[in-house]
Predict the structure.
Amino acid sequence: NAGVTQTPKFQVLKTGQSMTLQCAQDMNHEYMSWYRQDPGMGLRLIHYSVGAGITDQGEVPNGYNVSRSTTEDFPLRLLSAAPSQTSVYFCASSYQLGEKLFFGSGTQLSVL
Amino acid sequence: AQSVTQLDSHVSVSEGTPVLLRCNYSSSYSPSLFWYVQHPNKGLQLLLKYTSAATLVKGINGFEAEFKKSETSFHLTKPSAHMSDAAEYFCVVIFHGSSNTGKLIFGQGTTLQVKP
């Protein structure tokens, strides 16, 4: 099992550019989520999904889109990057909501 | 409003002394509660999870947490700190919604420093 695979590991964008952070898991997990981690603010939930075809907003959803067309994949789209989106992003999944979370290795994103 | 508050952003203890990391939450319902740890340049690891079977939950590496509903708290403790415990600790709460949905919300984190 690869676990949670998150790509890319590093990315630099210019303001206004769009991009997609990829997240895939091979553990048949129903629950998947995206977080951003900023110093002194912990991990803040961006979007989450409890199963294929179901997504919902977290604490800080503005400027981000998600979709869950398959159980395995949960991509995060930045529509028009802004410097405030400079952060470390983590994808996480669990078998079901409330079970142990498995994390991807993170994406360090800089928006200039 | 649903929220998770870790009362200390930074805790410093000497090796061999007790550790207390505090977490309070606000919720209208009985939440699901966790503690995760993040060592420098490493991923997050589950320390323990409250399942409502017992209010005192034992986790890995000698950590425990006690759920106190009346105080809406879930503080993390360890009797004797080890140098390897130095890390950032996150209290995590699930705020359940309808149709088995729910938001898994992290506290702001507490950095634990262990001095020799």
Summary: Chain A touches chain B through 23 residues (CB under 8 Å). Chain A is about 0% helix and 50% strand. The first strand of chain A starts at residue 4 and ends at 7. The CA atoms of residues 5 and 55 of chain A lie 19 Å apart.
